[in-house]
Prior knowledge:
Immunoglobulin-like, seven-stranded antiparallel beta sheet, 23-stranded mixed beta sheet, 3 domains, mainly beta, single chain
Amino acid sequence: MKIALTLSLLLPALAGLAQTTLTNDGSAITVGSGAVLYVGGAVQNNAGSTLANAGTVQLTGDLTNAGTLASSGTLLFNGAANQVFTPGAATVATLVLNNTGAVGQRTLALPADLTVGTALTLQSGLLRTAPTATLTLPDGATLSGETTGQYVQGNLRIIRAAGSGVLDFGHGLTLDRSGLGQVTATRTAGLLTDNLSRATSLPNAAGKSIDRIWTVETTTAPSAAVPVTLSWLADDDNGLTSFNPAQAWRADLGSSAWAATGSPQAAAVSGATRSFSFATAALGRLTLSTASANPLPVELVRFTAEPQGADALLRWATASEKNNDRFEVEASADGRTFRRIGLVPGHGSSAQPHDYQLVDPAIARYGTSLVYYRLRQVDTDGTFSYSPVRTVAVSGKPELALFPNPTTQAATLIGAEPGAAVTVFDAVGRLVLAIPADAAGTTHLALPHGFATGVYLVRTGSTALRLTVE
């Protein structure tokens, strides 16, 4: 039997709830003004249940609403790992994201539409909508805290009432709204999806745009050219390394037929500002690129990344190549900071298709649930461009493994028990190196200079692996 319960929290804070999930199944929970409901885990508000929040609901896990969620106060997502907010028919005044997880594990996912009526504040972490979901800030609602590695990925819609003069929407769009009536500006960013968050096949050999598209709708059509400024973060460069000359691009609503708008401006965009101003006689869908060619100098027809046991298998193919010196394969634990993990020579200039692959061993060593990969294609004259980013999910405890193996001097062991002793012996059984595994079960083995090439034995616990030094 379900029992209706009203819980009014009038204390400054209520902390220390031990349950993993706070489930409301048919009851009414009320958080009073000035009160804080802290949940060290998830909140499940089932159908027929009510959660009324006039204070602060702070949680470290997911929030799933299938009932009535009326939050005139603050929802604070304060986890140490990725979180999900499934809003249902929720009404939310203030939403704060302060996820303190490791880089790459501090994202708040929004799988369905949500309106935040008063303020959206980003203190730490990414808020990512599903490609089909939109986060809306109506007229008067504010956005604060967007910066590198901390912004809204996906669809962010901001609505502003009729007015006059230059208006900064706060999500990278500034325009003169005089005579336009109500303006609705939806920014789609960071999804790396063709013609959803980025434009492709731009005319005049422009190639591709940044990974941001603004869709601007007005209740009154412009009667003259509208001054517009677009700005973005380095996160959404989409592999473009030059904006000289910079060019704005426009398409009709719902269209992917892009055309240049405004005049291209040489050296108008710097790496520091990432901002570009122009005037356009029509609005609609807007983005930014360069007026000159900036694509990969190879015709890349496929790039995939998939798990292969404890490893990641990366495969790509080209239909043709021109002055292609090499592919540098790069990996990242957070999708922002990449490092080179391998190099595969190209085929110079060729009109024939070519297949490539590289195995990244033991990807659990990255210490994250998702590993990001991209190709850095380098031309014979040193110029380079990036491919789209691909991801591979990491699952399970890593097996004991050594890489690289063979090596010339150093190797890394993963899969050991945290803190366990790791020893290295030479071919005649002499102890060469002894070092404990770190908290992640990883040990970096650097053999002392002067040791001979040959086979060494790496032992931890009851397991031993052979390491070949060349």
